[in-house]
Give the backbone structure.
Amino acid sequence: DTEVTQTPKHLVMGMTNKKSLKCEQHMGHRAMYWYKQKAKKPPELMFVYSYEKLSINESVPSRFSPECPNSSLLNLHLHALQPEDSALYLCASSQDRGSFYEQYFGPGTRLTVT
Amino acid sequence: GDSVTQMEGPVTLSEEAFLTINCTYTATGYPSLFWYVQYPGEGLQLLLKATKADDKGSNKGFEATYRKETTSFHLEKGSVQVSDSAVYFCALSEVDSGGGADGLTFGKGTHLIIQP
């Protein structure tokens, strides 16, 4: 099973709301990632977790707050977002952080900020 | 820094035509190379990968060979189908100074349209 699940599939939120995106994998992978993808653009890396610890934060604004409660779960907490944050948010996982490990992506959460 | 360059398209072909999507990369070290495919409204699916020079990745009739001398990883398929219409991303992953990978660096994506 190479499935990464993400919920919700779609999310509409106002600029004053607080919401969370959830990602889950049961492949025993020890590295998990958040990417942001704008329309007709490639995904851009936001955060990397390795063994449940934050390894990389690609200068993401503090209104995005990641959390890794356990090895199977990754959350992205959203607060006071801007309309330009509307995008497809993709979660991925890999066996470990080595460069030769392929990443498996979830279907994404399409976020609209109004 | 690392970068990936690929033709953006759209690339329009007739069914059963031969496909080539060019991909070249710039990296400081020895990266692993990947092709991902994204269908409309979906996440990315791994198509194939190669982790060392002269490795050939293959899957579902698609192939790509890791060419270190030309820093390339071109995607090919002998006979495309309408169902191959999607966006294709070439990507690399390289080990950082801490020994882990920094996540994937993607090309801009190639939109492929196959007409019946």
Summary: The longest strand of chain A covers residues 18-25. The radius of gyration of chain A is 13 Å.
